[in-house]
Amino acid sequence: MRGSASNNIGSLPHDRIREALRETADLILPYRCAVCGRLSDTEERFRNYDDLYLKIFGKESELHICGKCLSAFNTIEENRRWSLCLSNPIENDECPGLALFMPFNYRGIVERTIPKIKFGKQIELARLLGCLLGSGLLLEGIRADLVVPVPLSPERLAERGFNQAAQIAYPVAVLNGIPYAGDVLIKTKDTKRQSEINDNVLRSNNVTDAYSVSDSWDLTGMTVAVVDDVSTTGATLHEAAKALYRAGASKVLCVAFAGNRQNKNAEMF
Length: 269
Known about the structure:
CATH architecture of the largest domain: 3-Layer(aba) Sandwich
Number of domains: 2
Strand content: 5-15%
Helix content: 40-55%
Largest sheet: 6 strands, mixed
């Protein structure tokens, strides 16, 4: 009988064995927070997000996060969520007065989360940020014809495996009832990481003319919301907006989940 049982186990497909081990581990080992690694204690209290995630993505969320980290995602003051896109406006700007909506500061929980997304391949965290950002825009009553993510170069996309801006932008579009268009913008050159450049002028030069609009799109007269994860000087979003305006867009709204800004934009989008 022992031999028969052993043969039966040995004949199980490897994927069945792995699935059984995962189910057993879930019963024994508690979930860990994707941000801090502590025990996740929001499984029962996170059902509203699970329902929302299912409606947006058509499947259940795999995100686990502790209550302390979840409650730390606090928006900045209402009158500081809008600013000029460029932290240092330039002369003869092709799109002067470009507005930026950015509801979170890049510090604390956000500063710990973004690297988890970019370098830890935590797609579920990016989608959570997208839902938070989309909810913020919904409260602002923003209207646009398209939501477009800032693209990665093919080289960076292959390295990372996904575009974090796209993962954030998609729920923004769905929550606001705006069509999502992930193939509008193209990155035409593989730039250095902006986070590795400290000088503001060099950051601007790094992304100058780095984006174009796909020939398959006619943006004439459209209002476009372009989305990124983080904005520091605003150079990346500004260059993306330039490409959209050159392709015929009538108005561009820049949107970033987080950054650090002090100047308030006097004119709302």
